[in-house]
Amino acid sequence: MQPARRVAYDVLRAVSESDAYANLVLPSAITAASLSPQDAGLATELTYGTLRRRGTYDAIIASAAGRTIEEIDPAVLDALRLATHQLLATRVASHAAVNESVNLVAAEVGRGPAGFTNAVLRSISRDTPGEWQERIENGARSDDERLGLRTAHPVWIIRALRRSLTAEGRADELESLLEADNVSPEVTLVALPGLAEPAEPLRPYAPTAFGSPGGDPHRVISGSGGTIRVQDEGSQLVALALAAAAPIRTGEHWLDLCAGPGGKTALLAAIAHQHDVSLEANEVIPARAGLVRGALKAVPGEVVVHEQDGRELTAANPGRFDRILVDAPCTGLGALRRRPEARWRKSPADVAELAPLQAQLLSGALDALTPGGIVAYVTCSPHLAETSGIVSEVIRTRDDVIELDAAAVLSGVVKSPIDLASNDAGHVQLWPHRHGTDAMFLALLQRKPTGE
Question: Which of 188, 252, 285, 424 has its CA 20 to 30 A from that of 449?
């Protein structure tokens, strides 16, 4: 099998079998296979393209096979998905896609399944992508299911995104958002303030953000000693907003409560170093805590990295911190561009499971603030139950907290005007189709100063 296709298949199997993340598995698989830059690009496109449109391809495979995908051996199904992507969305020759997939299944599973694979793929190859799309959409049970088949999104995610956009009065942007989710994001870098300078091409909003010169970031990153790293512009903006929410006083004490893998921590640490502010970080998962420590190596000074449940850490430190970043564990629905498999892996049950933890982390962080201190509540999800719903739930039970105008704060951070939908609370929702960032949510909550 052609090496790039083999790498793509192996990554698809890791995602299916082990709940691996393609963005973590693929780079090492490419290195292990010693792929050329051209083959590495092909492997990346095949992997991400197949994962991104998996739901659509599953509907096509089920139609061509005359059986549900649950009745197909998982190893065979991944081979069929990969081949379907090649047949319907790439310029790979049909005979190459079919023959290599048949040979792969014969070697991995057996000759009988290989014959089944051959029959299914030859059926798929006889019709055009448009004909297949029309066929599966005609079988949809609702308009949302039809939209899901066309844009490769589960129905529940489409409805959640529609509700979030409707809350901004922007429901008409739904299809633009869904299309943006299916476009691979450009690499964005961060230049840690005071330690590195952003270069051309500059990103439009964050003063620390810039694009990858020539498209390959590795040379720039490796030569920076860690002061330049890959970080989405939205991720940079929410950290910068916390730092800009009020004038920084010498001697402040900051906390990044859910710090892994450390990108926002490093940015906050660089700002803290400029202002003689102390920063602590916390990450409950030891491996991710190690990533945080690695991200901080480029920043002068010491940042203590705890490995505790964030709720326990805040409970043990009431009234201690001036600023706290709560980048809460979430479904990650705002990063579907870079983690395409997440849309098929997550379910509404994940939202319900995470909501109590999100509320507890935010409530604990508010308790750990000094009077006048500020919490930035952040998620990489636009789902209302993880964003404004959590904020409303927490502050409804307290009389010592006010919500600041995060939109006004962020507007003071950015280099050029930014289109932020208005809302009564003043929180911020970024969007890939509107801002070119992950769909980051930001709310700024202040504990009332003493005497108010």
Answer: 424
Q: Report the half-sphere exposure of 169 (CA within 13 A, side-chain side).
A: 5
Task: Collapse the DSSP code of 107 into the 3-class scheme (helix H, G, I; strand E, B; otherwise coil) and give the result.
Answer: helix
Q: Which residues contact 254 (CB under 8 A, 6 or more apart)?
A: 268, 272, 277, 278, 279, 280, 321, 322, 323, 324, 325
| CA 350 – CA 352 distance, rounded (Å) | 5
Tens digits of pLDDT across the chain (452 residues): 899 999 999 999 999 999 999 988 999 999 999 999 999 999 999 999 999 999 999 999 999 999 999 999 999 999 999 999 999 999 989 999 999 999 999 999 999 999 999 999 999 999 999 999 999 999 999 999 999 999 999 999 999 999 999 999 999 999 999 999 999 899 999 999 999 999 999 999 999 999 987 666 888 888 899 999 999 999 999 999 999 999 999 999 999 999 999 999 999 999 999 999 999 999 999 999 999 999 999 999 999 999 999 999 999 999 999 999 999 999 999 999 999 999 999 999 999 999 999 999 999 999 999 999 999 999 999 999 999 999 999 999 999 999 999 999 999 999 999 999 877 788 999 999 999 999 999 999 999 987 66
Place of tokens 């906390």: 255
Q: Which residues are designated catalytic?
A: 380
Distances (CA, A) of 11 to 21, 43, 47, 108: 9, 10, 7, 15
- Residues 417, 151, 143: CA angle, nearest 5 degrees: 110
